[in-house]
Design a protein that fits this description.
The complex is a heterodimer. Chain A is mainly α. In chain A, helix 5 packs across helix 7. Chain A is globular. Among the domains of chain B are: 111 residues; 181 residues, Beta Barrel (Lipocalin), CATH 2.40.128; 108 residues, no CATH class. In chain B, 7% of the residues lie in helices and 46% in strands. Chain B is built from seven helices and 59 strands. In chain B, strands 8, 9, 10, 11, 12, 13, 14, 15 and 16 form a nine-stranded antiparallel β-sheet that branches. Chain B has a five-stranded antiparallel β-sheet with strand order 3-7-6-5-4. A four-stranded antiparallel β-sheet of chain B has the order 17-18-19-20, with no helix packed on it. In chain B, strand 45 and strand 46 form a beta hairpin. The longest helix of chain B is centred in the first third of the chain and has 14 residues. The two termini of chain B are 46 Å apart. The chains are: A mainly alpha, B mainly beta. At the A-B interface, helix 1, helix 2, helix 4, helix 5 and helix 7 of A face helix 1 and helix 2 of B.
Chain lengths: 157, 856
């Protein structure tokens, strides 16, 4: 049996969404690249294992987001964290702005971090973000508002 | 920095957060093989009936990286691994054999329960006579005995705890993900107790003299003169020195009663005085003592009997069960005492229940007991101060008694074993029911598994393997054959999802989540709100008029949990609710609960003004319950009052936000989801407009206030908007942010469009209750026109950018529908258009029922 065809083909999904899944994992593990790699790998493993994969690209993306969150939470519960330093930024290490904003994002509480990412970067509406995070729309607004406020303070307005 | 500038920085940063190509390629290779050209492997399932068996094969490499095998060749050999007499004996306190042993078979672990595609289990792998525990780090501890005949002693009930007669056993730590036997140890410490952070192996030091053996026989149990133990971590590294516990003079210990060691290193053990001078050689126990190290902390007397003790799995709590005789010795009262460790005899919390013994465990920082009550098997949950609530787990079945309890590693499921014993016939159990409850869903029963086998002790996870992801459970027990007490091992498996249908089918008869039924169930004088998990919160004033009975009602399962509180103010939050109580003298106490009522996180808020004259007029919470806002009246030296608004967080940090005009009394506040606006409804306490409801808005962030000069009756916070309802209609407010200024945009809902009481405007609120409701999404407005005294007219409108579009209107004869300003008793399903509300009969007989309508 082949991996699949079209949008549900794991090879396509991997190429298309690996960065997104990795970002989510990286945020959960506060920049620990080794843990983020393990978690991202697990997410795609779970995707490959699926008996019935989502056919719709939107659903695939949503499935990956939710699974990534659950996988990270599960790993965090098991104290899976490895003693590896924060993300090895490679050539980005020279980019002061990136490091500064990255550090500020990582200081946010987990839920605020996810709400900002999903709504600002992934472009989900507050209602969609709420569904993906398992909370109410109002809460998403609240998270984003607070996150913005903290980030502004952290980044010196 | 504007929001737009910040957002741009965030986007750029997120964009940069990516793994480099080498990482991507590495992971890709791990999971899909070289060149990403790998086929998904699904093994043919030859036996259609074996539906529980996993279909996929996942190879776990030694590096711990999961990989889909590139070919469908991973048929499982899976030889039985038993280390009978093969493993070298290792000195206990010198460390176990830490050399990693990799099994040479091609076993594949797909989840915690099964290890291969043919449904073989961990018990198949290590032998049915093995005992298996899943450790907190995901590894397994396996205990193997070398000779089954050594395991059990006839007529010895302690055999169920296992192996007390064996001379040696082998312990194995197995990493199922790595397929490695991490370490193994052959030892004469034949008993083990597994905790969250370690396990301790114990060897009972048996008595050998003839007199001592006579004690054993007379008591039909086994007597020890002490225990020797060694604690290990989950790598099988010894922790600390060997622990030696010696029975005090003229005292004995029972081999089945293992000592326990708390996280502070104190050892707790029970020892018995023996009454051996009786005539005829009949011996008996003459009282017991519970020791902490060498200190006696419980001394059994004639009216005070120790029944059991134990530490919780985290080794941070000591539980002592005893029986006290009261009423001049005629009535025995069970008593359970909970000590938080380190042990302090003065800090005990007595949890008296009228049964002699409790099953107990900890959930986070809550102490829980399971016990039979008059009609049900109850779970009682205690915090440090009081009993929080009782959950009826099941109807009482007198044939089966709760016997053993286990909480899964992820703390999602509670497993309770009920044992069937007819003591009038035999003390040997005749069967068992294992029930699983969903902790996160208010202990909703998920499934039950009835068996003729006995799963006697799952308290520390012994012989129960639970795969939380798939819901599969496998457990080992014993079956007692006729005419002998010699048990046979039995292993059974079931799935919590397999039992769900059965439970649901039952539910259909018992309950319903139709809000109309809930309204009619609880009747008049109930304020019913729906929580975000679908449970209902019901608030009812007690007959004494002082206390309030709160009930969490799970309509799907027809389960209720009630408690009484003197606080009568409740506010529904996004993921729970808050109850608060004005203590006077400028002091408010509030508790924020999760949706399940008590079980979830309970957070306490407390506001205390530093002004002696202060009084808190009202409080509200932001949507997720992380902040409490308090309107506090403070008086100056001229006795003029001013109301100031503060926010308070859980750690007690109070922030001054702004003040109202002088001499007002705040009756209601509401806060937008982004915490940017606080709406306030207030009355003047002086002047011509005294007692009138007025309205102002307060900016939370810089204290700027803006008067709206509108009367206010109801105030709803929906998203980042505030909806003010009065006789003129509904006004909508939100904070403008385009220029980072506090601008208020009155969005121009057409004034009067919801003017429902044209002929008798005041009668819109004729019964004293305001009658608008803005739905949770802020999209629909429900209004009740009470201008006709013999009927109500219900109107539902959709809120659009151009005003309100009326969707529905119905005249309801002989009914009066009450809309509470917190939305209680009104339920509108925005997807189905079904509307339901509590309604009084207008015929004067005080009847109360549910009104239902289909809006679209």
């Amino acid at each position: 049996m082949v991996l699949g065809t079209g949008v549900s083909d794991p090879r396509y999904v991997y190429g298309q969404y690996f960065d997104m899944v990795y970002r989510i994992c990286l945020m959960y593990f506060k920049g620990n690249a080794a843990d983020a790699e393990d978690a991202a790998q697990t997410v795609f493993m779970k995707y490959i294992e699926l008996d019935s994969r989502p056919e719709n690209e939107g659903h695939i993306k949503a499935w990956l987001i939710v699974t990534a969150q659950n996988t990270c939470k599960s790993m965090l519960r098991r104290h899976f964290r490895k003693d590896v330093s924060l993300e090895d930024n490679g050539d980005r290490a020279e980019d002061f702005t990136y490091r500064e904003v990255f550090a500020a994002i990582m200081k946010l509480p987990e839920k605020e971090r996810m709400a900002v990412y999903l709504s600002l970067y992934e472009g989900y509406t507050a209602a969609e973000t709420a569904k993906l995070m398992g909370c109410r729309e109002n809460t998403v607004y609240s998270y984003i508002h607070r996150a913005r406020k903290k980030l502004k303070t952290e980044l010196g307005e | 920095m504007t929001d737009k500038e910040l957002d741009e920085k965030l986007r750029l940063t997120f964009d940069e957060m990516r793994a480099n190509n080498a990482v991507k390629a590495r992971i890709s290779e791990r999971i899909m093989g070289d060149n990403m050209d790998v086929e998904r492997i699904i093994m043919d399932n030859e036996n259609e009936n074996e539906t529980n068996k996993p279909k996929r094969i996942i190879k776990i490499t030694n590096g711990g990286k999961a990989a889909v095998a590139a070919a469908a060749v991973l048929v499982i050999g899976g030889g039985l691994i038993i280390f009978n007499n093969k493993a070298p004996e290792i000195k206990d306190n010198g460390g176990a054999n830490n050399a990693v042993v990799t099994t040479d078979d091609e076993d594949i672990v797909t989840n915690k329960v099964y290890y291969d595609e043919s449904g073989k289990t961990m018990f198949d792998k290590f032998g049915e006579e093995s005992d298996i525990w899943e450790l907190e780090n995901g590894r397994y501890l396996i205990r193997q005995t070398e000779d089954k005949s050594e395991m059990f002693a006839e007529e010895d009930m302690n055999f169920i705890n296992g192996l007390i007669n064996a001379n040696h056993v082998t312990y194995i730590i197995y990493d199922a993900q790595e397929k490695n036997i991490v370490s193994q140890l052959r030892t004469d410490k034949i008993a083990v107790k597994v905790y969250d952070d370690c396990f301790i192996l114990w060897r009972p030091e048996k008595k050998n003299s003839n007199a001592e053996k006579m004690e054993d026989k007379a008591l039909k149990t086994q007597i020890a003169k002490g225990f020797t133990g060694q604690m290990f971590d989950f790598d099988f590294e010894p922790v600390g020195d060997e622990i030696k516990v010696k029975a005090p003079d003229k005292m004995s210990m029972l081999t089945g009663n293992l000592p326990e060691v708390d996280i502070y290193g104190s050892v707790y053990y029970e020892a018995y005085g023996m009454l051996s001078e009786n005539s005829g050689g009949i011996m008996s126990i003459a009282g017991s003592k519970l020791y902490k190290d060498d200190e006696v902390i419980f001394k059994e007397e004639s009216a005070k009997l120790l029944t059991s003790f134990g530490l919780t799995q985290d080794r941070k709590n000591l539980i002592v069960n005893s029986v006290d005789s009261g009423n001049e010795g005629t009535q025995f009262l069970g008593k359970c005492t909970w000590y938080e460790l380190p042990y302090d005899s003065n800090a005990a919390r007595e949890i008296s229940e009228n049964i002699p013994e409790s099953l107990s465990f900890m959930l986070e920082d809550k102490f829980c007991t399971v016990m039979n009550n008059d009609k049900s098997v109850d779970l009682n949950i205690y915090n440090k101060e009081r009993k929080e609530r009782t959950v009826a787990l099941d109807a009482l079945n007198t044939e089966y008694s709760p016997n053993s309890v286990f909480v899964t590693k992820d703390r999602k499921y509670l497993v309770l074993s009920y044992v069937k014993i007819d003591h009038t016939v035999s003390p040997i159990p005749k069967g068992e029911i294992i029930k699983v409850y969903d902790i996160e869903n208010d202990f909703k029963p998920l499934c039950e598994h009835e068996s003729d086998m006995i799963v006697y002790n799952i308290n520390d996870g012994c012989d129960i393997l639970f795969d939380e992801e798939s819901g599969e459970i496998i457990c080992k027990g014993f079956v007692f054959t006729d005419d002998t007490h010699f048990p046979e091992t039995k292993i059974e498996s079931f799935n919590i999802n397999g039992g769900t249908d059965e439970v649901k089918a039952e539910d259909e008869d018992n309950g319903s989540n139709d809000p109309a039924k809930v309204i009619e169930k609880f009747g008049a004088n109930s304020e019913i709100s729906i929580l975000s998990n679908g449970n209902y919160l019901v608030k009812q004033m007690s007959e004494d008029g002082i206390s309030v009975e709160y009930t969490i009602y799970d309509a799907e399962n027809d389960k209720e949990n009630s408690w009484v509180d003197k606080a009568d103010k409740v506010e529904i939050l996004d993921n729970g609710f808050a109850i608060y109580r004005n203590m006077g003298d400028g002091h408010v106490q509030a508790m924020v609960y999760g949706n399940d009522g008590i079980q979830g996180e309970v957070r306490q808020f407390s506001f205390t003004s530093d002004k002696a004259s202060a009084s808190v007029q009202t409080v509200t919470f932001n949507h997720d319950g992380s902040l409490m806002y308090a309107a506090v009246e403070e008086r100056d030296s001229d006795n003029e009052s001013v109301v100031r608004i503060y926010s308070v967080n859980e750690s007690g940090t109070q922030t001054y936000l702004g003040k109202m005009q002088e001499n007002v009394s705040v009756t209601k506040m509401s806060v937008t989801a982004d915490d940017s606006l606080i709406g306030v409804i207030w009355n003047s306490t002086k002047g011509d407009d005294r007692g009138e409801n007025n309205y102002s808005l307060l900016i939370a962030e810089n204290g700027e206030t803006v008067e709206t000069h509108k009367k206010g009756y109801q105030l709803y916070s929906r998203g980042n908007k505030l909806f003010l309802c009065n006789n003129d209609g509904i006004s909508v407010y939100c904070a403008g942010s385009d220029e980072e200024k506090a601008l208020f945009l009155e969005e121009g809902v057409e004034s009067g469009s919801l003017y429902v009481g044209r002929d008798y405007p005041d009668d819109t609120f004729a019964d004293g209750y305001p009658n608008y409701f803005v739905t949770e999404s802020g999209e629909y407005v429900i209004a009740v026109d009470k201008s006709d005294r013999a009927s109500n007219t219900v109107k539902v409108s959709k809120m659009g950018s151009d005003g309100l579009e009326e969707l529905f209107e119905e005249k309801v004869d002989g009914k009066s529908i009450v809309i509470y300003d917190n939305g209680a008793n009104l339920f509108f399903d925005e997807e189905s258009g079904e509307l339901c509300a509590g309604a009084w009969d207008l015929d004067g007989n005080g009847g109360y029922s549910a009104y239902k309508a289909k809006v679209f």
